């Protein structure tokens, strides 16, 4: 408004026009306002045109009762500046040549109405400025937090505290990012504001009483302070807080802790019982098959080296037996019985029944191994041969159960007395003969060659590899005269001796072939049987033909007598006899 001491209405309007062109904050009740930040420098320009004949300029502020307090003076002629002795502004003021007043280290007490005065000989011009000071509060903190929260109980969650705010702000509580609105006896919020008389700054404390639910176990609680600054409304948020919410157990669960999905005899079993309350129960009752009463234990119960009779239903409950859960455990087992087993010694040609019996919790896979080679069928011995000897393993597994495998061994020894067969052949060079002694027996017989008559021992024999109880010993000789060779085979069971006559190299003789292998021997035997059958058949046919011929001849003689009487033809009888002789021939 235009003060009464201004010369004219025109000058008043002119001054208002000049003031309105300045870039300051909006008017408050028709007055210009300067917004300052607490602790910063307040700068207030004198929004008056400097008149001609200016003598000096002055700044003052007004007390609440309206009385003025002068704080700064500047002469336009002597260019000197004087500051009044006002304790609140000592060493804080600065007045520039254009009469702009600066106040360092802005305080809340600087919120006043300041007036710039320009004085001439004829007039005094005044222009007021309102100063507003703002202080951003500290980040709010949630203090005096509850150690834990219990469901269905109204309790103090904590206090949200924010300090050193000006003007005073407002505090709002949030849960998971949503505003917590007051609800009677469920959400109770109290806000307290305290001002520091020395600084004028506010401390705001908002307490929250809350009835939590089980769903609040992981809820994030926070608070936000809303305050005003030079540029408008702003907010600051506290760090979120998660509270430990206690609630009773509503369900009990039993688990089997095992490294494998299946359990076998000899394993250890760990049972774990848990409740879904918070804090979880620390003790439970475990019910074991065969036990009438529950066993009191912590949340785990361990059984070591379990046997097949541990299979069954296991239960656990709270100590007051109010809740219970159960699970079924199967302890897998595998038994193998091999008959006979170990080391067994039998004689060649004997029978040996072998059985491998399996008892298991599931279907088991059984296979046989002989001398590290898997067999296609189970062994069966009706007449033992040397090739049947060896190390037999009966092995069985449960494929679904890791590590459950059993095996037993049978070491079969087939013994036999030495058997000898001697053969000879003339070598292709016609200069020597090879004599072979074919030997069977176990343990391996020792072979010795001698010359019958002289008794000399032949040491130059060569032996073949000993396989399946068989081997050969051979010598090469070039006899100048007929000799008899003796082959002696001896083991722990018996001593066998066989001799063979060998003609001089110059005398031709039938050369016997070397011993053939078993398959060829069988073929030769089959051929011999066939030949014998054919011969027997021919003999039987000849016998039948002879009988028929004898009957025919007898009948023919009778017929000849009748012909002689009836026909009297001697020539025909002769011809008949000739024919009979031809038939006989």
From TrEMBL:
It is a single-pass type I membrane protein. InterPro entries: CD80_C2-set, Ig-like_dom, Ig-like_dom_sf, Ig-like_fold, Ig_sub, Ig_V-set, Surface_Rcpt/Adhesion_Mol. Its main location: membrane. The chain crosses the membrane at residues 530-552. Residues 128-237, 248-330, 349-411, 418-498 form the Ig-like domain. Pfam families: C2-set_2, Ig_2, Ig_3. It is found in: Cell membrane; Cell projection, Axon; Cell projection, Dendrite. This is CD166 antigen.
């Amino acid at each position: 408004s235009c003060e009464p001491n201004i010369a004219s209405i025109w000058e008043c309007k002119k001054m208002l026009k000049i003031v309105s062109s300045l870039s300051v904050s909006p008017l408050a009740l028709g007055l210009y306002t300067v917004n300052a930040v607490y602790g910063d420098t307040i700068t207030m320009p004198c929004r008056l045109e400097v008149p001609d004949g200016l003598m000096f300029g002055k700044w003052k502020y007004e007390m609440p009762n309206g009385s003025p307090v002068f704080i700064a003076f500047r002469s336009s002629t002597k260019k000197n500046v004087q500051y009044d002795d006002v304790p609140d502004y000592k060493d804080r003021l600065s007045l520039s040549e254009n009469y702009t007043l600066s106040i360092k280290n802005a305080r809340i007490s600087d919120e006043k109405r300041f007036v710039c005065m320009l004085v001439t000989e004829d007039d005094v011009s005044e222009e007021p400025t309102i100063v507003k000071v703002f202080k951003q509060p500290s980040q709010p903190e949630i203090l005096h937090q509850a150690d834990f929260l219990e469901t269905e109980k109204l309790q103090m969650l904590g206090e949200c505290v924010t300090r050193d705010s000006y003007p005073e702000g407002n505090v709002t509580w949030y849960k998971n990012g949503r505003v917590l609105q007051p609800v009677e006896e469920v959400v109770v919020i109290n806000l307290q504001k305290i001002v520091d008389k020395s600084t004028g700054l506010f401390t705001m404390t908002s307490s929250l009483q809350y009835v939590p639910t089980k769903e609040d176990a992981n809820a994030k609680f926070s608070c936000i302070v809303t305050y005003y600054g030079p540029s408008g409304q702003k907010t600051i948020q506290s760090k979120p807080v998660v509270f430990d919410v206690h609630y009773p157990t509503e369900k009990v669960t039993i688990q089997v802790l095992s490294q494998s999905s299946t359990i076998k005899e000899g394993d250890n079993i760990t049972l774990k019982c848990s409740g879904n309350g918070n804090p979880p129960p620390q003790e439970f009752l475990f019910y074991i098959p065969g036990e009438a009463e529950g066993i009191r234990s912590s949340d785990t119960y361990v059984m070591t080296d379990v046997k097949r009779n541990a299979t069954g239903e296991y239960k656990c409950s709270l100590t007051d037996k109010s809740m219970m859960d159960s699970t079924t455990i199967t302890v897998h087992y595998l038994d193998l019985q091999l008959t006979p087993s170990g080391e067994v010694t039998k004689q060649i040609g004997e029978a040996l029944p072998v059985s491998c019996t399996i008892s298991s919790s599931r279907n088991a896979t059984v296979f046989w191994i002989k001398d590290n080679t898997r067999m296609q069928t189970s062994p069966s011995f009706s007449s033992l041969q040397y090739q049947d000897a060896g190390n037999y393993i009966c092995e069985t597994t449960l494929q679904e159960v890791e590590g459950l495998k059993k095996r037993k061994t049978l070491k079969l020894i087939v013994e036999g007395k030495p058997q000898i067969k001697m053969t000879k052949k003339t070598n292709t060079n016609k200069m020597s003969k090879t004599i072979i002694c074919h030997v069977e027996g176990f343990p391996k017989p020792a072979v010795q060659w001698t010359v019958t008559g002289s008794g000399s021992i032949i040491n130059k024999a060569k032996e073949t590899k000993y396989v399946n109880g068989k081997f050969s010993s051979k010598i090469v000789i070039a006899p100048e005269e007929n000799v008899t060779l003796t082959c002696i085979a001896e083991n722990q069971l018996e001593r066998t001796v066989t001799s063979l006559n060998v003609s001089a190299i110059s005398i031709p003789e039938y050369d016997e072939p070397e011993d053939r292998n078993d398959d060829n021997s069988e073929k030769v035997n089959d051929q011999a049987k066939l030949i014998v059958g054919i011969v027997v058949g021919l003999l039987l046919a000849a016998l039948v033909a002879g009988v028929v011929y004898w009957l025919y001849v007898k009948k023919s003689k009778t017929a000849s007598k009748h012909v002689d009487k009836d026909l009297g033809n001697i020539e025909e009888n002769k011809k008949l006899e000739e024919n009979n002789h031809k038939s006989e021939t």
